[in-house]
Design goal:
Blueprint (H helix, E strand, L loop, with lengths): L3 E4 L2 E4 L4 E7 L8 E7 L6 E6 L6 E3 L7 E6 L4 E6 L8 E8 L14 E2 L3 E6 L1
Parallel strand pairs: 2-11
Antiparallel strand pairs: 1-3, 3-8, 4-5, 4-9, 5-6, 7-8, 9-10, 9-11
Amino acid sequence: QVLLVESGGGLVQAGGSLRLSCAASGRTFSMYAMGWFRQAPGTEREFVAAISRSGGMTQYADSVKGRFTISRDNAKNTVYLEMNSLKHEDTAVYYCAADNDRAIPEKRSGVYDYWGQGTQVTVSS
């Protein structure tokens, strides 16, 4: 029941910043906990960040904590990922996901019900 479309990916130099957006089609966006995942070539899908329905709780992977910020605007049906101090290791396809069963953020990819098509983030070194 939810269509997710990521945008904002691109090429950025190491140390730079980038903001990803994920627009959702559902009319009840606020009922979904949202997450960001990424997958680099030759690696498995990796948790990045997640946010609760209200936005009051967040979770981050250790590799991005302190550099990335997840936020949401329920009035716009959009979740964001602000990425700062980007490293070459952050290069990956970033995916947005929605969880219609839980209110709190989850690190487990298996709990998410809907996924976007992904947006490429490339950090040059």
